[in-house]
Design a protein that fits this description.
Helix 2 packs across helix 9, helix 3 runs antiparallel to helix 17 and helix 15 crosses helix 17. The protein has one domain. The protein has 17 helices and no strands. By secondary structure, it is mostly helical.
Length: about 400
């Protein structure tokens, strides 16, 4: 008699994978530093010391985290598939839409202090055009169509041209649509667990085959890793962990310097049904997979990431991810203001960090409340008890990009 895959392997409601929170917090800081890096005279990491600025690597690690976290969420309590999808949409889109409105407000406030911009068009027309752009981001590109080369619809004839020509008002929001479609894949695989083990294995095989070349591949791998966690008895020694982590960082840095390996180019040429990743994205994905697997197998790495400091970073990671980019307008406005008064360039950069950091801390505090609202909305949709941020154990479902 066949059994459903995952029976006897249920997570208790409210279970928390703490090292994932820590890893997510580090990734959010990487993305923030990556967007600040042009202010300090470089656009991308060029050596081992600058891995901290590798925002693209962090984004792929986010996707692996979401695959594991969503698999755990669905594994602990699986209501109707449609209800989980709506809950996931609420979790992602409520804070993201608030971030768009926040960015628009920052832009309106800083408009009078940008004479170069004001000289292009009358303020009323300029405000209206930017408002229309924010609205298209909120309701069309951010939740559904995605951004340029990362969009899943880039090869659709009439949509592809539209997507290529559109630029996001908030750069990091390009990941939100990927998170949503990746959630669809993971939750569909979780729904297949209601059937026999053979059905689940077939579904996972098809998903891996179809997403091998796409940016959704990390979500499927994360789902597999979650269900393999109790079947893997190998613990990686600390020296091997450090060596393999170094290899992952090297692959990522090589991708940033346009050093493409032949195997990455070969994978990028293999033809499947989904849009292809570039060799650059393939290398970043491979580096993220290697790093994530090492941490997954290393008790020491998990213990380090479960530290209270890293878990705190994880608790503010989504607010930090959403707010740091719009506030860069404050950074550059302060920098221009100080340069116009004859201050040295280096001094203006570091002085501009002061108002930027203060505003960022305030924005994170506000957006944690919005984040809590989205968590409670998500929990209410799937029929779980609402609670405060201070008392809620942050579940795997709260692993946003």
């Amino acid at each position: 008699m066949s059994t459903r895959w995952g029976e006897g392997d249920q997570l208790q409601r409210g279970t928390r994978i703490e090292w994932l929170d820590g890893l997510r917090g580090i990734g959010a800081v990487q993305v923030c530093l990556f967007h600040l890096s042009p202010a300090f005279g470089f656009d991308a990491p060029y050596g081992p010391a600058l891995v901290a600025f590798d925002g693209q690597l962090a984004v792929f690690i986010f996707f692996f985290i979401s695959g594991v976290g969503l698999a755990g969420w669905a594994n602990s309590d699986f209501p109707r598939w449609t209800r989980l999808i709506v809950a996931r949409a609420a979790r992602l889109f409520i804070p993201s839409m608030a971030a768009c409105l926040f960015a628009f407000g920052v832009w309106i406030i800083l408009l009078p202090f940008s004479p170069q911009v004001c000289g292009l068009l009358p303020a009323s027309k300029l405000t209206a055009s930017v408002a229309a752009k924010f609205l298209t981001d909120i309701f069309m590109f951010m939740p559904l169509l995605g951004h340029r080369d990362s969009s899943l619809f880039l090869n659709v004839p009439w949509l592809g041209m539209l997507i290529r020509q559109h630029a996001f008002t908030i750069g990091p929001l390009w990941t939100i649509s990927i998170e949503f479609y990746g959630s669809l894949v993971v939750l569909t695989l979780a729904a297949s667990k209601r059937f026999s083990k053979c059905v689940v294995i077939l579904a996972v095989f098809i998903a891996l085959l179809l997403t091998l070349r796409s940016i959704l591949f990390p979500f499927v791998v994360g789902f597999v890793m979650f269900h393999a966690r109790n079947r893997i008895r190998f613990n990686m020694p600390i020296l091997v962990t450090l060596a393999v982590l170094s290899g992952g960082f090297f692959i990522s840095i090589a991708a940033s310097n346009n050093v493409y390996f032949s195997w990455a180019e070969w994978i990028a040429r293999v033809s499947f049904m989904v849009p292809a990743q570039s060799s650059y994205s393939v290398q970043k994905c491979a580096a993220a997979l290697l790093i994530f697997c090492v941490i997954f197998l290393s008790p020491e790495a998990k213990m380090l990431l479960s530290n209270r400091f890293f878990r705190f970073l994880g608790s503010v990671s989504f607010p930090l991810y959403l707010t740091h980019f719009p506030l860069l307008m404050i950074f550059w406005a302060t920098d221009r203001f100080l340069l116009a008064r004859g201050m040295p360039t280096k001094a203006t950069v570091y002085l501009s960090l002061v108002p930027y950091t203060l505003c960022l801390c305030a924005a994170i505090a506000i957006f944690r409340q919005i984040d809590t609202l989205s968590i409670n909305a998500s929990r209410a949709i799937v029929g779980r008890r609402r609670t405060d941020r201070a008392t809620i154990p942050q579940e795997q479902a709260d692993l946003a990009a």
